[in-house]
# Entry
Amino acid sequence: MGGMFEALAKHGYLDGNIAERMRKSIGFRNIAVHQYEAIDWQVMYAICQYHLGDFTQFAKVVYATLQKDNGHLGV
# Structure
């Protein structure tokens, strides 16, 4: 799933920086949801303190793109 963010960046829909941050969030989600390994609660705290805005930024980019492209991404 992380590859989707790379594809969006490649096609100019996302800045490479936000694409990378979102890709990392998928990796952490996999750990948290599927328990691939023990959760590092310091990492969880840091995400909550410093990276929740990444999701807002991503949502704003998607919304603006959908408005510009009449409701669909041409990826």
Remarks:
- Helices lie at 2-10, 16-34, 41-50, 52-68.
- The CA atoms of residues 31 and 38 lie 7 Å apart.
- The two ends are 15 Å apart (CA to CA).
